[in-house]
Fold this sequence. Notes:
Blueprint: E1 6-9, E2 16-19, H1 25-37, E3 39-45, H2 51-62, E4 66-69, E5 75-80, E6 92-93, H3 98-108, E7 114-118, H4 121-124, H5 129-138, E8 141-145, E9 148-154, E10 158-159, E11 162-163, H6 170-181, E12 183-184, E13 186-190, H7 198-205, E14 211-213, E15 216-220, E16 229-231, H8 236-248, E17 253-260, H9 267-275, E18 278-285, E19 296-302, E20 309-311, H10 323-327, E21 335-338, H11 351-361, E22 366-369, E23 372-376, E24 393-395, H12 400-410, E25 417-420, H13 432-440
Parallel strand pairs: 2-17, 3-16, 6-7, 10-12, 11-13, 20-21, 24-25
Antiparallel strand pairs: 1-25, 3-5, 4-5, 7-9, 8-9, 13-15, 14-15, 17-19, 18-19, 21-23, 22-23
Amino acid sequence: MSPSAVVTVVPARRILGRLRVPGDKSVSHRYALLAALAEGRSTLTNFAPGADCRSTLACLRRLGVDISEEADGPITVLGRGIGRLSSPSGTLDAGNSGTTMRLLAGIVAGHPFSSRLVGDRSLSGRPMRRVIEPLERMGARIEATDGHAPLLVHGARLQGIVHRPKVPSAQVKSAVLFAGLHAAGTTTVVEPAGTRDHTERALLAFGGSVAVDGLAVTVAGGQRLVGRDLSVPGDFSSAAFWLVAAAALPGSRVEIAGVGLNPTRHALLDVLKRFGAKVVVEVDAQVSTPDDGEPQGTITVEHQDVRPVVIGPGEVPGLIDELPAIAALGAHGGHVTVSGAAELRVKESDRIAALVAGFRALGVNADERPDGFVIGGRAPHASGGLTGHGAAVADARGDHRMAMAFAIAALAADAPSTIEGADAVVISYPGFFETLGRLTS
């Protein structure tokens, strides 16, 4: 679709089809950044098309990295080597992308120049102290506004550290590890709980070395990375919305090919099984050598039953990006309870408040908790809608995952529903609404 601030979603009895989703956003960021630090040429196919990853490419170009693109084709990056980026030709604008800002801060911290990292209003409200503190311990100096962007990063000769973050975060872990590539000695991050391991896999894919011992991840400074040809798997977090829709709507079946099957990312599949869905996974490619990067395959989900779902703090780190999709199960006769997810309040929006407000606007029972939410519990009519669920308006608050979650919830309505701020899907999934129309036609 052409980006539009307002989209109307019509009810659907079921969702059927086979599809592919855009390249994984998390993997695309990391491949682009490491390709810039590698020596030689890298070709990245199925690179994520959303605005967030475009921000990463734009920042790298300002740091002197030669990047070429073909229309709907691969991205080619001419790497400069670790520590050899150029002083930026201007401000480094991360847009709405927290991944861009945090990971890039770790990289420029190890270069002998100053960089100004900025973002949009949403990104400027997200916490950056969790990155600033370890990077300053390593030797960089960072100016910020009350722990928020803009960040003025004064690079320096870094020294490896052992960092023990209080909150599990793959972005913080990755930022510190990227800084560690530029540091003397070794750098270790010991997480309070496991997070996605895309950075560790990407380092191996580019010929680097990384040691993993339980929750401790260690890299050595002074490594040499080598340019590679890599394919980005389909984005599991984007696929999540179709998988949830198939699980929720009677008579539904969705098959998604070429999607990433990283073990640290697919906890949603267990949640859907608990909900009552039939889930089948076929692996196309296992990681058997460093060149393989990420496993991928085909996921098929069929509706079978509807049962309550309870997600506690121990599951949250592995589901943090899929929680908005999971919440939509509560609009389809299910009941979803989530706790231990206070981190949702510092995403692109306050996702706890935004989810509850949006689902209430759609006529779904929703209660806000300090660290989570309860969605659903109201019995559906025979027509498949929920009482008061028709002719409603939900505000995505500029958050791509809110827009998609509300769209999936609106499929259960008994009348068309309107989503304001639906253009936010361009952040990660520009073709989302076109695909929705095809699967529900």
